[in-house]
Design brief:
It is a single chain. This protein has 382 residues and is α/β, with parallel strands linked by helices. It is built from 16 helices and 17 strands. Strand 7 (158-164), helix 6 and strand 8 form a beta-alpha-beta unit. Helix 1 (32-49) crosses helix 10 (284-292), helix 2 runs parallel beside helix 3 and helix 6 runs parallel beside helix 8. The structure holds iron/sulfur cluster. Belongs to the anaerobic coproporphyrinogen-III oxidase family. HemW subfamily.
């Protein structure tokens, strides 16, 4: 597993979506310059202290938050600094997340010229009522326009993020969203079921009975219709929640699912190198302060965890099973000097007998039934 990716986190958002439990900050424009300066410092110290600069990056991903709340020139400068500090494979995938109406045509041209070659647009729904219910600060027209402008700027690898199982959502409104999304001809779709996370305004509203979610059968039907429509349109479901046209699978995320190594920059970002997981402090003010005082010997990590062989083995299995091709048992044995049959024993055999897992040409993978009940299967293997 020699792949190396780089993730750069921009935690700023226009406003906080009521379902969001990610680390993100609304309205902190005062911090933008200081934060980008801190990232530049972290980038330099990272390449000196933690990894071999000559090892080429296979992917770079600027995510958030809403990265495009920073000026396109600032994002381009940060990308140039990444490329100056690390070598980068030819044809590396360089993605940036964009929320509709946060970047205009000129800005997208700047990003494309800087080297970003993949765009991930946070569309979530193509129904204005649902977008309002989700508290999204954009409309369907904004999302469509962002995609059209991105095409004109030269982006030929575009992902749309969508969510189903939304409050008051009907099967037909979800089908309309899927049909409309396919009409827009993206190369990639990330499609997640909404989960209501504790501590979010949505959790509170749900407790107060202010909305109801579609029932389990409707949600299953939504997933079924999604799979049918996407298959018909030539998309391959290559991960539980991700679908791509041939050749457009997201390499950056595949590296995560293969439990490969990655650099993580920014507040709350995670890095995984030499068997150690580093999690940066999820507080942008503190993050900046610590990088401004690096000479005091403080670092930005809230947590450093050295994974032992068993933990790394389990993680590799769980992550690998997220991909529909699963994982190679031979490679697993080579990497950890441990066999999955010996490690999981009867549990593995039972899951195979129950039709949740299968072994196809050396690859352990979830069956169609296992994909539907993936969380339950993973819980048995974790
Ligand atoms: S835009 Fe994304 S990261 Fe920001 S608050 Fe909304 S869901 Fe969270």
């Amino acid at each position: 597993m020699n792949n190396l990716g780089l993730y750069l986190h921009v935690p700023f958002c226009l406003r906080k979506c009521p379902y969001c439990s990610f680390y993100s900050l609304a309205g902190r424009t005062d911090l933008h310059d200081r934060y980008t300066q801190a990232i530049s410092t972290q980038l330099r110290s990272f390449s000196e202290e933690y990894c071999d600069q000559s090892r080429p990056l296979i992917s770079i991903f600027f995510g958030g938050g809403t990265p495009t709340l920073l000026p396109p020139e600032t994002l381009s400068r940060l990308l140039a600094e990444c490329l100056a500090q690390f070598s980068c494979a030819d044809e590396a995938e360089i993605s940036i997340e964009v929320n509709p109406a946060t970047v205009d045509a000129a800005g997208l041209h700047v990003l494309r010229r800087a080297g970003f070659n993949r765009l991930s647009i946070g569309v979530q729904s193509l129904n204005d009522g649902e977008l309002r219910q989700l508290g999204r600060p954009h409309s369907v027209a904004d999302a469509v326009q962002t995609l059209q402008v991105a095409r004109a700027a030269g982006f030929d690898n575009i992902n749309l993020d969508l969510m189903y199982g939304l409050p008051e959502q009907k099967l037909y409104t979800w089908q309309d969203t899927i049909d409309h999304a396919l009409d827009l001809q993206p190369e990639h779709l990330s499609i997640y079921e909404l989960t209501i996370e504790d501590g979010t305004p949505f959790a509170q509203q749900q407790k107060q009975g202010r909305f109801s979610l579609p029932d389990e059968d409707t949600v299953l039907l939504m997933l079924e219709k999604t799979q049918q429509a996407l298959k018909q349109a030539g998309f391959d479901r290559y991960e539980i929640s991700n679908y791509a046209q041939p050749g457009y699978q997201c390499r950056h995320n595949i590296n995560y699912w293969e439990n490969g190594e990655y650099i993580g920059l920014g507040a709350g970002a995670v890095a995984f190198l030499n068997g150690t997981r580093y999690t940066a402090i999820a507080d942008a003010d503190q993050f900046c302060k610590r990088l401004e005082c690096l000479s005091n010997g403080q670092d930005v990590w809230a947590e450093k965890e050295k994974l032992d062989r068993d933990a790394a083995f389990r993680e590799t299995v769980i992550m690998g099973l997220r991909m529909t091709v699963g994982l190679s048992l031979l490679e697993l044995t080579d990497r950890f000097d441990m066999k999955s049959e010996m490690y999981y024993g009867e549990t593995l055999h039972r899951l195979i007998r129950q039709g949740m897992l299968q072994i196809v040409h050396d690859r352990l993978q979830l069956t169609a039934q296992g994909l539907l009940l993936a969380n339950t299967v993973m819980a048995e293997l974790v």
